[in-house]
Amino acid sequence: MSDIKGELFKNAKQYGADLIAVADTTRMGSMETSPEDLLHNFPRAISIAVQLANGIIDTIVDTPTEIYSQHYQRVNALLDNIACRLTSFIQNNGAKALPIPASQILCEERFVSYISHKAVAINAGLGWQGKSLLLITPQYGPRIRLVTILTDLDIPADGPIKNRCGKCTKCTDACPAGAIKNVSTELHYSSRNQAVDLDSCVDHLNKVSGFGNLMPYICGVCVATCPWGKKKTAVP
Fold it and tell me: pTM for this one?
């Protein structure tokens, strides 16, 4: 089945994915999902990432921009397209697949969806959970968007990687809501409020989304400020 995994990854890259990895869902038994039995009969979760445009992220200083809002939506649409195309590939190979929408909030009080794309990506080893709660990838930092496909395709799973945030406080210092608590974790936090004051974050998002044509609940400051996402300049 490793040949099918290689073909799956190759197709994902051709469709526009920048990163892809596979999580073993037995590691995610305590994860909240909607419905509760969402992972039932799906031993694998495929995590797919598309990187955001650096030129757009770099326009964010202390508040989101309209061009970031539009780009955010376009990348989500691309991810959903990739997931649908890969679902066809999986089904044509005799397996089941369930693509989870890239961005859909089911409950605006708790900010949860069918499954946490970030949690899947962490278990698949695409990156680690940063102090901002974002997924931080070695290649692009947090400058990515994610989508997930649940499947029973018999392919090898990948594993988590080490958290590399260390003593960095860039996102904590830059957060306009003062919501990031500068708390580290090895794999993931026991709750979101352990790392972030979610109420302060949401209050700020509600304020900034009232200006222009911004999509609700996006900020981007912690995305833009993370050193892992910034382009490294060559040393003379």
Answer: 0.91
